[in-house]
Amino acid sequence: MIGTTDIIISIGYILFIVTIGLWAGVRKRPDTGHASGAYFLAGKTLRWPMIGLALFATNISCLHLVSLAQSGFDTGLLNGNFEWMAAFTLILLALFFVPFYIRSGVATLPDFLERRYNRACRDWLAIVSIISAVVIHIAFSFLAGGIVLETLFGINMYVSIIAIAALTGLYTIVGGLRAVVVTESVQSVVLIAGAVIITVAAWNRVGHWDQVTKVLTAAGEADKLSMIRPAGDPSGMSWMAVFLGYPVLGIWYWCADQTIVQRVLGAKDENHARAGALFCGFIKILPVFIFVLPGLLAYVLFKTGALDISALQHTATDGKTVTDTKGIYTLMITQLLPGGLIGILVAALLSGLMSQIAGALNSIATLASYDLYKRFRPQTSDEELVKAGRWASGIALLVAVALLPLLSLYQSLFEGINDIIAHIAPPITCVFLLGIFWAKASPRSAQLTLWLGSLLGATVYTINKVYPEGWLGGIPFMMMAFYLFVVCVILQICFTFIFPADGHTKDSSLYWKGCLEPLQSKGWSGVGNYKFLSALLLLVMAVLYGIFR
Questions:
Q1: Which segments in the chain show pLDDT lower than 50?
Q2: InterPro entries this protein is in (predicted)?
Q3: CA dist 37 to 34, 176, 525, Å?
C-alpha cells in the first residue's frame, strides 16, 4: 500500500494526461477536407521525434515494466534480446518498408495487401490485426496493470481496469491518432524517467558492478549476465532461437502490425518516417538497462538479504515454498523508494498502460472503419467512418476486459504474449516479405498462405495447450515461429507456381525491383541521414552484443 502523497501524484498524472489528450484531439486545426485522415492518421503531420517516442510508448506498456523486471529476476538479461533485436527490425522498417508505405499512400496495412494481392488478403489481415490488438495490446496490458494497481492501492483489479479503460478510451476515441501520439510522447518521457529512478535506487543499494558479478558467481548463476546462450539452453532462448525466431516475430510486430506502423503512416514525409523509426531503434537500447537490469539487481539484493520477498512467497499443496515473482517490480517500488518517488513510479506504470491501450484502440478504429465498414458501405462519408471507428474502439475495450480471466492463466504474462505472437506472425511475415521483395508472388498464393498458415499456427498452439507434454510442447516458441515461417514460405512459393500472378500484380510499383532500390533516396544531409543513422545503430548493437555475449 502507498501513502496519500503518492496517490495524489498518481491521480494528478492521470487527469493531466486525459486533459492533454482531449486538448490535442479537439483543438481547432486547419480544415483539410478529410476528417477521417485527420482522425486516423493525424493529417500526416507527425515529425520524427514524436514518431519515435510514440513507437516506443506503444510498444512498452505496464506489462513490459513488470514482466521484464520479473524476467531479470528469474533469468537475468536474457529476455533483453526482445528489446535489442527490435533495433534490427526497426532498421528494416526504416530502409525497406517505410518508403513503400509512404509512397503508396496506404492508410492501413490491409490496404497494402489488397493492392499487392487481393481483397481476401486485406479482409483476413484486418480481422487478424483487430483480434491481435485486442488480445495482445489491450487485454494483456489490462491484466498487468490491474495486478500492479491492486497490489499498490488495494483496489479490486477489475475496478481499476474499468476506470483506466474509461479514461484512456475517452481521449483516444474523441481525439484520434493526434491525441494518441501527443500523449504517448509525454508518457514516453515519464515512463523512461520512472524506470531510471528505480534502476538508480536498486543500483545504489547494490553498490557496484563487482558486487553483482560476485553474488551471481557465488550462486553459480553467472550466466544471468549473458545475452547469448548456447544451443540447447534450458531457457529455450539459445542464440539460434533468438536469431532465427525473433525476426519472424519482429518483422510482423514492427513492420506489419497496424498498431505499431500507424505512427509511421501519419508521418509528414518519408524522411520523418524513417528517422522516427530509427530514433525508436536507439531508444530500444534502454529497456535492457532500465527494465531488465533492475530485476537482476533485485535478485542480487535478495541474495544478500537486502530485499525481502516474503510477500511473494506462499506454500504449495505439496508443502514447498513457492515464489511468485510477477510482483517483484511493485515490491522494489515499495521497498527501495521513498514517498513521493513512489507516486512518480506509479505514474510511469500508468503511462505504459495507457499509451499501449490508446495506440491499440486507434489502430482498431482505423482497421474497422477503413477495411471492414467501408467495404460494405463504400459511399460512406468521412464523418460516418470516424463514428464507426469510435464504436469499434468502445466494443474492443469491452471484449478485452471479458478476456482477462482466460489470459490470467499464464504464469508469465510476457512469455504468454510472445507465445501467442509466435503462432500468429509467421504467415503474415511471409506474405509481406515475399510481396515486397519477390515480383512473382501471386494473389492466390498469399491468400492460401494466410489461411493455411493461420490455421496451422492455431492448430499447433491448441495442441501445445491440450498436450503440453507432447513432442510439440518441447519446441521453444521462438523456434516454433521459425519453423512455421519456413512452412509458410514453402507454401507461398509452391502456390505461386500453381496459381501464377495475373496482370494486376505485375504492376512494378507494388514491389521493390531489387534490395538496393529503396536505398536510392538521398534523404537528409548530415547526421540525420537515414543511411548514417542505420549504420550507426548497427554498430552500436554489434558493440553491445559483443560486451554482453
A1: 28, 30-43
A2: Na/Glc_symporter_sf, Na/solute_symporter
A3: 5, 10, 30
